[in-house]
Amino acid sequence: MKLVGLIVASLGTYCLAASLHGHEVVSCPSPDGKFAMRCVYADAQPYAGEAAVVDLSTHKDVVALDPNWTLGHARLFWSADSQRVAYFSQKGNGYSTRIFFRYGDALNEIPLPELPTPKLPQNATGSEADTQTRVEPLAWHSPNELVLEKELVNPNWGRGALKITLGFDQDNSPAIPKSEQEKVSVIDYFLLLPAKNFEAPLSAWLREMRGHDRFFPCDAEPEDNVDEKNGYLYCAGSGAEPEFEVALFRHRDGRPLLALCSGELEGPDSVQLQFYEPGTDGKMHEIKRSIFPIADSMEDRWQFDLPREGKTIVVRARKSKKVLHKFTWTDEKFQEDK
Known about the structure:
Structural class: mainly beta
Number of domains: 2
Radius of gyration: 22 Å
Largest sheet: 6 strands, antiparallel
Number of strands: 23
Shape: elongated
Order of helices and strands: EEEEEEEEEEEEEHHEEEEEEEEEE
């Protein structure tokens, strides 16, 4: 499967207006309706501008988030009581988070402690310049407790990630009561697929699946493409790109078996299946297609549905969508359901 480069995502529908500096987008309002994020950017590359939190009643800046902001992913993540907010944004090839607390009609930044670094895979090598760092807010468990994910991704060795809990006292001093290494998941195995099969870096496809290719995600529909718990990924593709999905199965001894289902570049979706297992080099390698009883649909007569949950791959008639076969993974082989 050859995948061409990603196409820049469209802006979608936002509170978008012309300004003296180009375009202005207001999004991510606080739950109490007091504040929001305003991004202003120029009409042409490099789309230079600025990002700030504004008071919606006066439209005046409350705090500058990035005076040299250029068009990229940016989001505010508010606590339920609107007293604290996390600012998540793209920085070069990575993503960072800053935290602010409310002080009357102002917002003051909370200096964060040094965050722990996740344990890396045993085969971790390569220069630091190749490693992308992402620190993203996941959930406010309470107005005083925020869960972050810190992730390191490198094209040579894959990924390492931590879930970090930040606690804040009455003086807004942060502490780290909990830090937990994430288990190896479908994301890790996806990032270890052969890079030569993809024109765009695998990390770029992961960004798209997570919705990080959207510049202003607060007003967009939430993404439902990454399901680590059930071992499933979905990518809608981009422009002329075919969509693809990934599902994780496991052998009885725990070894991973990764299924990749894709379509044709200018044809129907979900007509090709590939399977991968880890090699001695720590990367995922394609195995014989005979592991699955039904061949690819060379004449586009059927298509495959990978499971979002469970272990069953469904084979459907492409036009009528009628179910032709169901094959369930038994931890040893794919067996047809009776």
